[in-house]
Amino acid sequence: MLYHRTACEGADDTLVELIDYCYRKFSVMVGQCEKLADDQYLFPDDTTQNAKQIMAESKAEEMDKQFKEIEFKTTMSCFSIIRFISDHLETLPVPIVH
To answer: Once rounded to an integer, what is the mean pLDDT over residues 22-47?
Structure first.
């Protein structure tokens, strides 16, 4: 929706709230990344796990892994949203630009 200039212009105050939401997601991710060691990743590759390791996970661990995956993907989507908004900065109202 934000790919088109008219959608960005018509969003007004809602766009300010969306930008704030994206900013909060970015802040959380940066905070999580700062806590990681040099050889750790925020969203590690799970292809090295075998079936026994996956079956041995508790429901809480599985839910935690799924939560982290959803949060990561949501934050990546926020990058796309901000990119589309930034394409139309010249036509957006002053509160959004600042």
So the answer is: 80
